[in-house]
Design brief:
The complex is a heterodimer. By secondary structure, chain A is mostly helical. Chain A is built from twelve helices and four strands; from the N terminus they run H-H-H-H-H-E-E-E-H-H-H-H-E-H-H-H. In chain A, the strands form two sheets. Chain A has a two-stranded antiparallel ribbon with strand order 1-4. In chain A, strands 2-3 form a two-stranded antiparallel ribbon. In chain A, helix 2 crosses helix 10. The longest helix of chain A is centred in the first third of the chain and has 31 residues. By secondary structure, chain B is α/β, with parallel strands linked by helices. Chain B contains ten helices and ten strands. The chains are: A mainly alpha, B alpha/beta. At the A-B interface, helix 7 and helix 8 of A face helix 2 and helix 3 of B.
Amino acid sequence: MEVFFTQLTNGLAVGGIYALIALGYTMVYGVLKLINFAHGDLFTIGAYLGLSLLTSLALTDHVGAAAGIVILAVMVMGLVGVIGILLDRAAYKPLRTSPRLSAVVSALGASIVFSNTVMLVYGPNPRVYPQGILPTQVFEVFGLSVPVMRFVILAASVILMIGLYVFIQRTKIGTAIRAAAIDQDAARLMGINVDRVIMLVFFIGPALGGAAGVMVGLYYGQIKFTMGWIYGLKAFTAAILGGIGNIPGAMVGGLLLGVIESLGAAYISMAWKDAIAFFVLILILIARPTGLLGERVAEKV
Amino acid sequence: MMLEVKNLHVKYGNVRALHGIDLCVREGEIVTLLGANGAGKSTTLNAVCGLVRPAAGEIIFNGELIHRLPAFQIVEKKITQAPEGRRVFDTLTVQENLDLGAFTAKNQQRVKKSQEWIFELFPRLFERRDQLAGTLSGGEQQMLAIGRALMSNPRLLLLDEPSLGLAPVLVRQIFKTIRQINQAGVTVILVEQNARLALKLASRGYVMEVGNIVMADSASALLENPEVVQAYLGGT
């Protein structure tokens, strides 16, 4: 029981991180029908920018741990969001009318550029987030002990997801994003500036990915320039699991994948953790190719 | 003159869709474009809306050159289109579709009035406002496409095949509503396969063939023109 509870909370925390990254894949796919393979590296950049800002600004010394981390996260989100917009400008916008494969190749190229730039700037060895900034105490729930950090991570990702959901569902701009994802020309006929919508999507998705990067740094304490690859792949799996292009789907898919992986690691084998995640992906693709919440087949004119 | 199209050329890649057409629309008119599939009727509407960029020629709306403006800015000039195939946002509700129609509107009072009028024209939309647009019938989706295009209070409304795939009783209803919309002061360009109905509704018509305008006359004259009768009215 204790193992189960520990793994469940750990799975939810990791799942929240997957979900945040998955949102970036799914939002870009929704509007452009493009898999942004450089998205995992934007997540890495977020983790490293978080590290730099954390050590250079010493925010947590000035305003306290909680406020410091929030300010740090907001700054990283803004910076990574801007990098996302620049990525679109440089790598995707010139190829908007080209065959889709060109943009995919461009995405893979951008991914290599990003991860190698991080390596050049920060070095190839893993870097460590400063310890002692964050609460390390442990919660007692029903006689079981859970690190506070786990709840902080889960709470932060849930808050960001709810914020995004409300923005997409309830605001005028959010509705415009949904409209542009359904039919770009029809959206133009409504007076929606679709280029602006694409720009916004390339800000929000990477910003959420950047936040996830900071969370990984804080949660695990260690980051590496190659980590965008495996996290990106997992989050992509989560997006497919929930139904790519579907925003609530990415949230559900991320949390579910985190929990399945975490329980699988405990009850089956730690070594099979990644294999379990991709096994789930294969099952979903066979049983329900549109994903759990996806309604349409992804390919449409 | 409200709308003037001068020597309009449009190309899709190497394919020439319009070979220099001229047409004009006066304020308050209903003008219809007739012609077979591929004649360039939809392309003409899409060029006016800014969805396709002309290779040459001019489009002048109320004295202003608009053919270089992107589509989203042309909406602000008070030109809207209910496109062929309706193109409603199927996973959004009817209300959200209508709200998007008013995306550019600044005056919320005005939007409210437009919406009341649209619900008067199409009471069915009011009943179904919380339903997803994709669950509507074809006729209801057409009503939604027209209603959505009216939300921004346009001066010129472009209708592309509003009767396509609808039952005859619904076609008559849609045409009656188009007349009502026109009587409320909205100028209309109507592209229609059902040439007889279109000519009965319109004051003038243009006949298009493979990217050219081959005939332009009053609707009543076109209805009696033997060539038109032969080619488009299934005449004897």
